[in-house]
Design brief:
By secondary structure, this protein is an alpha+beta fold. The chain has 8 helices and 15 strands. A hairpin with a 4-residue loop joins strand 9 and strand 10. Helix 3 packs antiparallel against helix 6 and helix 6 runs antiparallel to helix 7.
Length: 518
């Protein structure tokens, strides 16, 4: 084959153009610092880049957004629980002081004020929020745990209780002893025999100051045996029943409901002011027999009490966070009545197919019985303080009295002293029991703190792993997409030298013509 100058010229020009294309590709890599600028340049690199970028974006979402958000939520929750633990610990300390029988009236008044302040602080702590979302209210993050101001709203509440909620306490019937003052002692007739201590059974509801015009109802499952076959089954018992039997009598706190309940074995008495259902001995024994059957999935040990409350004070817990209830035409937690009580857990995605619960619900630690127990302690201690004042006043009057006045004052003083002794004994036992009650609340709180700590530790491990994965995937992404600047610079410099050499050699070839060979 004969090689002409024209062929050499065309080949040189083609090679120069190829070199220029290569030089342009290297220059583009230098400016973009990427291996490719179009998927068609290297489909394998392009597909791998899409996958790695997706993984890096997902990990960045977990590591930079979800995990910090979860950490903040857990931190706010833990701080709230630690505050609650401190408050309950102080309540235990006050109960320890109150169980001392040698306190002065001023000592008791200090304990009363301390307990009131601690009671108010308990549920305020439960209103902790994170970024405008309440952390202890489950899915209702826009609703506070407690009422933020005095409110009027009619709630029909159904509490689902058990035998553990049955209580027996001492009540001191003291007649008109507390009504005695230095100005009216002549008009008060009271004797030592009028004062006595009685044991009263009760169900203490979650709320006091309930609606008195709404008659509450109580229902439970009672085991019955077929006399013919001996087969056992459960039947629902309602108080009151559909025929009006087993009525629940409303008796106000000022009308001696405790004495009436203690005197009548079949009594079922509702005290709306204190939020109590008082039970006679027979009724109490009947409820004590309520037990769950191991042969069925249903909970036969449940005791349901339905009642109404309309006036709410600032700081009282909202029923919708705890009970099946209805208010203003809206029904809350209906599934509770069907035995379905799923916990409202808020979970964050913090890793590939990995979630973590960030919230603790109010029913784990912010229990109604904490405030109700404080109410009982305050009432009992205040009763002792008031009786001490009555005794002091009567002793002062007795020092100056003579004749019939002295005789009457002595009888009143004996009654007051007897009431004081019984009330002090009641207060001491109640405060000793309060230590146990608040210790249980403290145990529940510490368990919640432990659970939060466990989740935080788990989140720390996940965060560390996400950090390592983020670094790994970013490295793989860089290796797949990014160029080695040094290597590209060398190649570009080499391509430029080659291009210049090609231009020089081509220039010499183009100078030759046919005349040079003749």
């Amino acid at each position: 084959m004969r090689i002409t100058n024209k062929i050499i010229q065309r080949n040189n020009l083609s090679n120069i153009n190829t070199n220029k294309i290569y030089q342009d590709a290297l220059s583009t890599q230098m400016s973009t610092q990427k291996k490719i600028s179009r998927p068609s340049e290297d489909p394998v690199v392009a597909i791998r880049a899409l996958r790695l970028r997706s993984s890096v974006t997902e990990i960045t979402q977990y590591y930079s957004k979800n995990i910090p958000d979860a950490e903040s939520w857990l931190s706010v929750t833990e701080d709230g629980l630690k505050n609650l633990s401190e408050i309950v610990t102080n309540m235990i300390s006050q109960c320890t002081k109150g169980s001392n029988g040698d306190l002065t009236s001023s000592d008791r008044e200090v304990i009363i004020e301390q307990l009131k302040a601690l009671r108010d602080e308990v549920y305020v702590t439960g209103d902790a929020d994170y970024a405008g979302r309440y952390v202890f209210t489950g899915y209702r993050t826009d609703t506070s745990l407690s009422f933020q101001e005095d409110t009027t709203s009619a709630y029909t509440i159904t509490e689902q209780l058990s035998r553990a909620d049955l209580d027996t306490f001492t009540h001191v019937n003291m007649g008109e002893v507390l009504d005695i003052t230095t100005g009216n002692y002549n008009n008060v007739d009271v004797a030592e025999t009028d004062v006595e201590a009685v044991e009263v059974h009760r169900i203490r509801l979650a709320y006091n100051d309930c609606v008195e015009g709404f008659s509450p109802s109580l229902s439970f499952q009672q085991k019955v045996t077929d006399p013919a076959t001996g087969a056992e089954s459960f039947e629902t018992v309602n108080w009151p029943d559909e025929n009006g039997g087993n009525p629940i009598q409303t008796v106000h706190s000022y009308d001696d409901p405790y004495g009436k309940a203690a005197a009548d074995a079949d009594a079922i008495i509702y005290v709306p002011e204190t939020g109590e259902l008082l039970l006679g001995d027979n009724r109490f024994a009947q409820l004590q027999e309520v037990k769950d059957s191991v042969d069925t999935a249903a909970d036969e040990s449940e005791i349901r009490v339905t009642y109404q409350k309309e006036q709410w004070k600032k700081g009282e817990l909202r029923p919708e966070h705890y009970f099946a209830c209805e208010a203003e035409g809206i029904s809350y937690n209906e599934s509770y009545l069907a035995g379905e009580r799923a916990r409202q857990s808020i979970e964050y995605d913090v890793g590939f197919n990995q979630t973590i619960q960030v919230n603790s619900t109010a029913d784990e630690c912010f229990k109604h019985y904490i405030g109700r127990e404080v109410d009982d302690l305050v009432y009992t201690m205040q009763e002792v303080v008031d009786l001490e004042k009555v005794v002091a006043d009567l002793e002062g009057l007795l020092e100056k009295a003579t004749g019939d006045d002295a005789k009457k004052l002595q009888g009143q003083l004996d009654a007051a002293n007897k009431a004081l002794v019984l009330s002090k004994d009641k207060a001491q036992k109640l405060f000793e029991g309060g230590i146990t009650v608040f210790q249980k609340a403290l145990d529940d709180t510490n368990l919640s703190i432990t659970n939060v700590g466990t989740r935080s530790s788990k989140l720390d491990l996940i965060k560390s792993r996400m950090q390592n994965q983020k670094t790994t995937f970013e490295t793989l992404k860089s290796e797949n997409e990014d160029v080695d600047i040094t290597e590209v610079a060398i190649k570009l410099s080499s391509a430029e030298l080659t291009y210049e050499a090609a231009l020089m050699s081509t220039g010499k070839v183009l100078q030759n013509t046919l005349l040079n060979f003749i």
